[in-house]
């Protein structure tokens, strides 16, 4: 048996603090295979290096695993200010001053650019993709002195490991954001040109039994209160309808919970939304991604903006607030598509829209190949530090000014993304928690009403 210190290195709170579900699940797998694991979350410890070092010394681990959630904040306005790896590099250097055990890197960010990140952070080993089985195998091999590659590929499995929820962590995230996380599936069969999900979790949905999901909900509700659930699936509303079975199981067990998830604006009807609302759905995040058919095609979204409009109308009819996330400047973007897209966004009612300028390029994606073919980057260009795709058919500064002008009189239209942080923090000061799209929408309606009366 080995002792493994699991460190969640994520300290970003934008748009809200996110519970470290990854290390909670890895802990369960390690325990299952006879190891002892200790979870340590830097954010909940106020980024205290003193607390980190004390915990490591007291636990005296045989291995340290570090989960890396994000490389950067994917916001072209912040550039290097939103680059997180230098902070993690300093943390690793601090750890090395007090202990010499192997440091194993993992998590979604690491899995995107594993070799470069391992070298950049000076880690010893890394696990790409899912780590429940592979990390245990790696630790066993190292314990027996086997010579193994520095980077190993994670094994995708249907083995279900329920998270080991740490009381202190749960209470911290309930206090800070009011949101806890669960998964109902892994993988993504869609091939959006910019996205890394299929690389991280596979290109098909691997579904978790609805009873498994509800059992986790029951545990959390029994032991904690005043929280919402975010189902962190790449896409919640899968074509086969597994998401409806989740809702039905929640209702069948009379679970009282507010929940939200990430949706694709396609393949649902009003009765589906009402079923979800009855089961606790209180807000929706929508992967709109582009604002007109031509740019949607450039991202290989395989739906039309009319689908987005129809989905918005369903949400409004069902009384479910939503937020759309749109990236401008991608493939096929021109000044004409920008103007069309901004007009299309005006047709979306009672919803929040977050706009991004440019698209972060990640290796292995179709966008990466497009950027190389267009001469935006070279094949050998390092992508460990943020590089953004901007269509050559529109000047970014002109694009940004047009977006700002279009959004300036509507509090539900947020650009640049940092504006969203400011508005969310303002709502937090009044004690509001959760996704808060409803509060932004309500505030905007009140503001417009007052303006009209004047």
Provide a descriptive summary of the structure in words.
- Helix 11 crosses helix 13.
- With 454 residues, the chain is of the alpha/beta class.
- A 7-stranded parallel β-sheet has the order 7-10-11-12-13-14-17. The protein has a 6-stranded parallel β-sheet with strand order 2-1-3-4-5-6, with helices on both faces. A two-stranded antiparallel sheet has the order 8-9.
- It has 18 helices and 17 strands.
- It has helices at residues 21-32, 49-59, 85-96, 108-112, 114-121, 132-143, 167-176, 197-201, 210-223, 242-252, 270-278, 293-298, 305-318, 335-346, 366-373, 396-407, 418-429, 437-453; strands at residues 3-8, 36-41, 63-67, 103-106, 125-128, 151-153, 179-182, 185-186, 206-207, 228-231, 259-263, 281-289, 322-328, 351-357, 359-360, 388-389, 413-414.
- The protein is globular.
């Amino acid at each position: 048996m080995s002792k493994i210190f699991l460190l969640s290195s994520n300290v970003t709170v934008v748009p809200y603090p996110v519970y470290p579900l990854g290390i909670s699940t890895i802990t369960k797998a390690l325990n299952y295979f006879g190891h002892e694991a200790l979870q340590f979350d830097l954010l909940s410890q106020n980024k205290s290096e003193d607390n980190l070092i004390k915990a490591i010394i007291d636990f005296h681990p045989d291995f340290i695993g570090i989960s890396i959630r994000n490389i950067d904040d994917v916001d072209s306005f912040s550039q290097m200010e939103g680059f997180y790896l230098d902070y993690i590099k300093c943390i690793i250097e601090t750890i090395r001053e007090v202990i010499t055990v192997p440091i194993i890197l993992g998590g979604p960010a690491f899995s995107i650019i594993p070799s470069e990140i391992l070298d950049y952070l000076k880690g010893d080993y890394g696990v790409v993709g899912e780590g429940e089985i592979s990390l245990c195998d790696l630790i066993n091999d190292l314990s027996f002195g086997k010579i193994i590659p520095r980077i190993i590929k994670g094994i995708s499995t249907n083995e279900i490991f329920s998270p080991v929820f740490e009381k202190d962590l749960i209470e911290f995230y309930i206090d800070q954001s009011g949101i806890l996380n669960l998964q109902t599936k892994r993988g993504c069969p869609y091939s959006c040109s910019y996205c890394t999900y299929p690389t991280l979790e596979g290109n098909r949905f691997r579904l978790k039994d609805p009873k498994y999901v509800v059992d986790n909900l029951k545990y959390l509700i029994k032991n904690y209160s005043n929280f919402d659930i975010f189902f962190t699936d790449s896409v919640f509303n899968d074509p086969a309808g597994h998401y409806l079975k989740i809702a039905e199981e929640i209702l069948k067990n009379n679970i009282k919970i507010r929940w939200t998830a990430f949706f694709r604006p396609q393949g649902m009807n009003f009765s589906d939304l009402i079923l979800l609302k009855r089961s606790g759905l209180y807000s929706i995040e929508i992967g709109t991604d582009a604002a007109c058919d031509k740019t949607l095609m450039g991202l290989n979204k395989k739906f039309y903006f009319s689908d987005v409009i129809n989905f918005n109308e369903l949400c409004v009819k069902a009384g479910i607030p939503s937020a759309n996330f749109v990236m401008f400047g991608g493939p096929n973007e021109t000044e004409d598509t920008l103007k069309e897209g901004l007009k299309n966004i005006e047709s979306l009612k009672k919803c929040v829209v977050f706009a991004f300028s440019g698209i972060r390029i990640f290796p292995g994606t179709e966008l990466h190949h497009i950027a190389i073919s267009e001469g935006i980057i070279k094949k050998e260009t390092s992508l460990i530090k943020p590089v953004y795709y901007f269509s050559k058919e529109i000047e970014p500064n002109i694009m940004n000014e047009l977006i700002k002008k279009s959004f300036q009189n509507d509090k539900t239209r947020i650009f640049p993304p940092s504006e969203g942080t400011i508005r969310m923090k303002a709502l937090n000061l009044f004690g509001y928690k959760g996704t808060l799209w409803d509060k932004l929408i309500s505030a905007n309606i009140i503001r417009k009403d007052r303006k009209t009366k004047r």
